[in-house]
């Protein structure tokens, strides 16, 4: 009887510990920053959504929990506190990490393939389909029509 109570108490403590650990893990994802006002916070959120996390694939700085993303969020916040504009902050990050840090990179010679590559591949595929259909249309044998009715006695 005592053993059973001890096991239940141990199980309850384990569940409570897991619950607290889970809450602690979520609490670490929240990174409070001392914004001057709500407008600055909205600007910060918009800017960090336009910047790519360099560690996580397909995540922006606002959503990433990586240590580097947290450091970059603090860097963006510090630059905002220094009075830098959004363009200046983006340029600062591009100078350090290249255009990869931007979700919407500018059209330059180094990004032409990124912007127009999918369209070029789509057009090349359309050309291949049209050429293939035309070749098959020319090579198809002309159907010869029989004058005799094809009646072999099967009436379905």
TrEMBL record:
<protein>
    <recommendedName>
        <fullName>Cytochrome c-type biogenesis protein</fullName>
    </recommendedName>
</protein>
<dbReference type="Pfam" id="PF03918">
    <property type="entry name" value="CcmH"/>
</dbReference>
<dbReference type="GO" id="GO:0046872">
    <property type="term" value="F:metal ion binding"/>
</dbReference>
<keyword id="KW-0349">Heme</keyword>
<feature type="transmembrane region" description="Helical">
    <location>
        <begin position="112"/>
        <end position="133"/>
    </location>
</feature>
<dbReference type="GO" id="GO:0017004">
    <property type="term" value="P:cytochrome complex assembly"/>
</dbReference>
<comment type="similarity">
    <text>Belongs to the CcmH/CycL/Ccl2/NrfF family.</text>
</comment>
<dbReference type="InterPro" id="IPR038297">
    <property type="entry name" value="CcmH/CycL/NrfF/Ccl2_sf"/>
</dbReference>
<keyword id="KW-0732">Signal</keyword>
<dbReference type="GO" id="GO:0005886">
    <property type="term" value="C:plasma membrane"/>
</dbReference>
<keyword id="KW-0472">Membrane</keyword>
<dbReference type="InterPro" id="IPR051263">
    <property type="entry name" value="C-type_cytochrome_biogenesis"/>
</dbReference>
<keyword id="KW-0479">Metal-binding</keyword>
<keyword id="KW-0408">Iron</keyword>
<keyword id="KW-1133">Transmembrane helix</keyword>
<keyword id="KW-0812">Transmembrane</keyword>
<comment type="function">
    <text>Possible subunit of a heme lyase.</text>
</comment>
<dbReference type="InterPro" id="IPR005616">
    <property type="entry name" value="CcmH/CycL/Ccl2/NrfF_N"/>
</dbReference>
<feature type="signal peptide">
    <location>
        <begin position="1"/>
        <end position="27"/>
    </location>
</feature>
<keyword id="KW-0201">Cytochrome c-type biogenesis</keyword>
<feature type="domain" description="CcmH/CycL/Ccl2/NrfF N-terminal">
    <location>
        <begin position="18"/>
        <end position="142"/>
    </location>
</feature>
